[in-house]
Queue: 4 jobs
Job 1
Amino acid sequence: MAGPSICWSTFRTGIGDRSPLFAAIAAAHDVRTALYPGSYVDLAPSTAFPHTTYVDTDDHAARYFADEPLVRSELAERTTYAQHPRVDFVHADYTTDLPIEDGSFDLLISLFAGLVSDACRRYLRPGGLLLANSSHGDASVVALDSSWQLVAAVQTSAGGFELTDVGLRAYLRPKPGRAKTAEEIRRRGTGVAYTQSAFAYLFRLVG
């Protein structure tokens, strides 16, 4: 099999290193297992969480995660926990039934990959967390669902990322004339414009 055309170290030069984001979540919440649909080759969650399962349809991603020595080398001396990292990859469309047991994960990650929460909330344990942004409307759909409770907003800073649980009522308030129903958000695939926005939002599954 030919080697991957791209790896995490080159990928993150384009998008930035999200490792500090996941480190901040790990520091604030008891997250041991994470599910990352639409991950491509973004290995950053594995620096903070001992067991992460990645899901993507992309063949480049499949080749990358199949190269276990490369994945191990990219994580070497970058993890923040003691145990050996467990990295799993599912080469599939996350909207289909995945070979994953329901209620298996502490954290579901939805970043720029569509309406992950609709398709994958079943894999999140009760009381588990969802990290979502407004790309494709996922955070906006979740904000309208009483099953989810906003517990933190994620802001970018000079040091990377910062989680805040202060003043959360100011977030996820649509600008005048910009409110949408969940059905409209899903149909259009775009989020809502808010009076105060964040890079992403952390929700807890409460229902």
Note: The domain at 8-205 is CATH 3.40.50.150 (Rossmann fold).
Job 2
Amino acid sequence: MDILSLGEKIKKLRKEKNMTLKELAGDRITAAQISHIERDKSHTSHELLEYLADKLGVSVDYLLETKEMQSKKITDNLILKSEIYVKCNELEKAEKQIKETIDICETYKLTENYGKCNNVLANICCKRGDYSSAVYYYEKALYHFIKDEDKEDIYTCYVNIGDIYALDKFYKGALTHFMFAKEVLEESNIEDVDIYKELYSKISECFMKLNQPQQALEFMEKIDKMENKDCIKEEVSILVMKAKGLLSVGKYAESKECFNKALEIIEKEENKNRLAKVYLTISNIYSEVGDIDKHLEYSQRVYDITKRDESKYTMESLFNIIESYVKKDDYDIAKKYCKLALASSIKNKDKYYEYKSLKFYSDMYRDKDEVEVAIDYLNKCIDIVSKLDNDKLLASLYIELGRLYSNISKEKELECYQQGVLMYKNLNII
């Protein structure tokens, strides 16, 4: 992917076609004149450019592209290539590619793409778990995005830095960056409701971690008020009809645009996991402030939109629903959802989720003073967890089993306590 001058392009194309200077010149000009043009020693008229383009099988626009224009197009493609490498976890290839792209950007002063290169480097660092370097590169990218007034990328950088700070439990810093992102979002007049919901849920979570529940609830209420009043199917139908009409009268570009818009709407609707993640965050925040009804409501929403996929969001929502009904002392409904969770975990051969489902059964029977049944379920939990290589969890289960045996068998109680304490000692916990 060489970046060539006009003369260099003509020479390269001529050689690729095995043409001599005389053959390219034809009856139009002399071979010597072609040689001067190829060495960028002579200017050409537009008519001559049309002649050369025709002989070489390219467009005039291609020949007229400056090095800056070529470098922009080349780096656009190299950045996309690097992003694909990142998505595929081929991080060394991505890093090598993006560093080559940065060299081109620096040579031709492509500030916009230089910002995008730093953004890719930040994403590479995130994949590697090197979050301090990731923040450094996101901030470098931000400098260029702000300079170019690239609102979308500015927003994304602020959110990414906020996510890293939240991961490091630096919630004050995370909240600051999420608030910056909120300002950018509002200035951009973006109407994508899901983007607002996702950001507001992050802000709410930070307020909760900073022990400011009132502010957290304010953003929860904002999410509650956001209802997508547009009928998705109707909007897609209108766009498709419009696209068909444009296609029938030969307006291909306009037709393609309408089809693309319809496709974007459908794909957005299909992105359930993103929305499920937002609703789970909201559900957990309501749980922390003690609003069981809201905790249940949002968990149910997650389950409703993911139950066909049986994803991790489906399971987490099921456990939230079970927890809510247990707190409401509605054990019959809790058991109904417990049965669903257990069936799904067994079907998907997920032992950890199987354990969690059985543990809920044990807890419910314990609460109802059906201790022997609770012990049976807890023993099943111990059997599963003993194969999961999680000694800390296993130790806690033995201690809990000891408590259940306290009024049944002192011998069993002591045996379980000893087992749990021994495991804690081996883990240097006590």
Note: The domain at 6-65 is CATH 1.10.260.40 (434 Repressor (Amino-terminal Domain)).
Job 3
Amino acid sequence: MTPAPPRRPDANAAARGDGITVAHVDPELGFSGGELQVFLLLDGLRARGHRNLLCCQPGSECASRGRASGFEVQALAMRNDLQLGAVRHLARTFRDEHVDLVHLHTGRANALGGIAARLAGVPAITTRRMDGRVRRHLLNRLVYGSLVRRAVGISPTVAQQLRAGGVAEDKIVVIPSTVDPDTLTPSRPRDALRAELGLRPDDVALLVLASLSRRKGIDVLLSALTRMQAARTPADGATSWVLLIAGDGDEREALGAQARAAGLDDKLRFLGRRDDAADLLAACDVLCMPSRREGLGIAALQAMAAGRPVLGSHVGGLADAVVHDHTGLLVPPEDVDALAAALTRLLDDAPLRRRLGDAGRAHVDRNFHHHQMVAAYAALYQDVLEEAARKSPRK
């Protein structure tokens, strides 16, 4: 397929208040924190009068939720990074739908959508959400070197990884992930859900909201709870606690076995995958994120917005989002002793939990509100379109 000559964009459309058409490419079958950010962006752009075209996999949650939310959905198979049929389909869609800009949301989207955007003569940007090394292989050099005009990192840490991976400084932009506090209003009273989960009124509820993968470090949390519990006796009058684990994944069996071996069975509730994060956050007292790696950590933002302290690892974007001893407590990753000490401190100090929770709510409102993210992307789109217009031949 021969690349189309660059279409000269109407760079002033957004500035005039005229809507532009943005194609968002997200090939994920599931729906996690990254997809939540995509949909917050879609909602915000629609409210500003822009048209969104969501390109995703058939049968994916993005496709079903996109249609249910009233977005235009283009479903096509994107099974691997070099699927030529998907590239042709995307390029044809970008041309036929008069797309002004392509926004790539995953690594696979970078490859397929980036090449398709080039063939269609449409400028593209990408957002990187993973906390991990940007490898300098041929495909990444192509994507970040010539296929995209900007590379967005969701935290300063992710932006630094882009730099370390060879991405040009003038292409890198930081736009943090955000939350919409209005979506975190619980649908039922705190006490009702706590009773349903078998919690007593005086139990401190620790909550994990995560996929059950090694990256999330839940095994480290169980080890820390085991060590902490061994040092506490009923005679101490120590605060009682329960750990709620909401999520599913490859580590489910191993975590269950670890809990049984440690004698923590009666202290844990494996809840499986849940869609009631707002209710769970209202029912809990502390959110635990003992991650080994984290791009930013949407659950941490949600917890702070709901007024709950975060106990997390000092890793990646999580260390950028959570302010230690102000909105939560951060410990070195995989440090069982430090995590056990922080757990003890939070369990036994209710005023500390309230102070951290109140500060977290204000912190999110100032720095991680979804309106800020939407405004930042709208400004970035405008900047990219103006740049593309300057570099495109006049007709």
Note: The first strand starts at residue 21 and ends at 26.
Job 4
Amino acid sequence: MLKVGLTGSIAVGKSYVCEVFRELGAFVLDADKTAREVVESNTEGLRRIVENFGAEVLQPNGELDRAKLGSIVFANKSKRQLLNSIVHPLVIEKQNEWLCEREYENPQGIAIVDAALMIESGGYKRFDKIIVVWCESNIQLERLMLRNDLTAEEALERVNSQMPQEEKRRYADFLIDTSEGFEAAKQQTVKIFEQLKLFI
């Protein structure tokens, strides 16, 4: 089975690209979904977050208040690193389980794991190929402001909290530029899927 890592900065269109890969027949795992699962109620992940960040990051029902935690970590690099050190190992463990299951299901398949911080965490080294999704910086900011209802300043703070897009692109075996919108991104994705099949 070909194991592919897909990454890119915030609001560049990774979800759309993943949807296209799914339609084409690839197995796709959304790391955000995995990251949510490892901090659900009564998990080791949530227990460790409360231990390190205090009970004020919980909602009244005991679930994680993601917005509250986000406002803490996006504004503070060391707290962000602390959160990542808790969540990343749990996410990678879950991803590895998923990859094993997919390989058992179809040894000739293509399994794609989508993770925003794959390069930063070192998790990219586990994959046969890396795809980096990117777009022009001004478009990224517009999309993020619109999607998350943020001011330009808040959006910029989130973008700057991540590795620069130019740096991520250096790790790529394949690049998908979403600046021109859905149709252009879809065409690039289809082309790359055909190329990936050659590596199986």
Note: The two ends are 6 Å apart (CA to CA).
